[in-house]
Amino acid sequence: MPKTTKEDILIVALHLFARDGYEAVSVSQIAGELGMTKGALYRHYESKRDIFDHIVKRMEQGDGEQAEEYDMPADKKENEPEQYEEISTDNFVEYSKSMFSYWTENDFASSFRKMLTLEQFRNEEMQALYQQYLVSGPAGYVKDLFKSMGVVEADKKATMFYSIMFFYYSLYDGAKDKTRIKEQFEKSISGLI
């Protein structure tokens, strides 16, 4: 599928937000990076906030697609309990490897993660999104999955599991040998459950 101007705007804006912070980036700066006028940009999005809302919407969609690809629940346990009962350890491990790649190697997801990491200290909304996508949201999801899978000490192991994943995100970002970091992550999670 060819990129559209709307898509280009989202990607450029997200890269700028991840580098400079949401508040520091202006619509003029986004338009300038794309070689367009503000007026041309406004034909696609109403405001910087509209661009941001579309970025978040795209992340929600991407998360759902990742879950669907690996037959994993896309929603909280209370909203789709039957899907939590059908999870195998192998599916979970493969899905976890996929999510690690998604959050580190997919340009959009990786930039979103970096933007939230930077912005979490600047305003409450960004802190809430950071928690939802990168901390308490995924940690709670893993805990619910582990409980459904019958993992002994599910709470403790879910915390350990997600701590490992989060640690390796940080290692990966600064690593020269990213393949080695990814392999270390995969070994670390395979022996945990």
From TrEMBL:
Top-level taxonomic group: Bacteria
PROSITE patterns: HTH_TETR_2
Pfam families: TetR_N (PF00440)
Gene3D superfamilies in the record: Tetracycline Repressor, domain 2
GO MF term list: DNA binding
Residue ranges of domain HTH tetR-type in the record: 3-63
Keyword DNA-binding tagged: yes
DNA-binding region: 26-45
The entry's keywords: DNA-binding
Record protein name field: TetR/AcrR family transcriptional regulator
Highest classification ranks of the organism: Bacteria, Bacillati, Bacillota, Clostridia, Lachnospirales
